[in-house]
From TrEMBL:
It comes from Eubacterium ramulus ATCC 29099. Residues 1-28, 138-186 are annotated as: Disordered. Residues 9-28, 170-179 have a biased composition (Basic and acidic residues). It comes from the Bacteria. This is Uncharacterized protein. Residues 148-159 have a biased composition (Basic residues).
Amino acid sequence: MTAGKQSHKAAEGNKGDRKNMTVKEKLKQEEEKLLESVNNSYRDMMRAQFDCIFEELEERCEKSPEYAARVLLSHKSFARCMKYAMKKIMEIRTPTEKEKELARKQEAPIVTPVSSDVLFEWIDEYYELDDKEAYEKEMQKQEAAQTSKKKKRTVKKPAKPLLDGLLGKEGGDAPDLKPSKVKKSRRKELDGQLSLFQI
């Protein structure tokens, strides 16, 4: 077994719920999830960029079992890593309102060129950052938001049981059922003809 594979296996033991997943498998899974949210016209370009980034990440994980262990932590994800990098980019350059509007409409991504060295500095910072507590708070907020949405959907006026109307509210006396008045036909009926609806 090579040193790289050993680092993957050592890291796998530390991550808990994804015991058999390698760095490459985790990153590939995260890449597919991220690409689903990308506009189709940019998907190939994003895939090429992610492939370059993931290739470098895999090399770093092979060289350092500690780095691999951090990448495989359950609360670490490449999506959160990209959010971290975006915050760093916003410190360098604030996008114009036009760029923001185009990005909201998914017509054009906000692009800020940075060197690969700077990008990997930020990626390393993210994976070294102890953000488990922040992640857990974020998950609690999401769960609370989902729960409140479900409650809003389910909290409606309680439906009256069908039998309440027939049996009365206490289930005893039946309400007076009056025969409904038969509507007279607006058309003249011919003598000797029967209507199926009057039988």
